[in-house]
Amino acid sequence: MIRLDKVSKQFPTGVFALSDISFEIGKGEFVFLVGPTGSGKTTIFRLLTREILPTTGEIIVDNFDIAKLPNNKISHLRKKIGVVFQDLKLLMDRTIFENIALPLEVSDIDSIAATKIVEDIMEKVGILAHRDKFPIQLSGGELQRAAIARALTLKPDIVLADEPTGNLDQATAVEIVKLLLDINSTGTTIIMATHNEDVVKALSKRVIILDKGELVGKDGKKLNTSTEHSEKKSAIINVEDSKLEDKPGAKSEDKPEEKIKPVTKKENEDEDF
Question: In the chain, is it the N or the C terminus that has fewer CB atoms within a 10 Å radius of its CB?
Answer without folding.
Answer: N
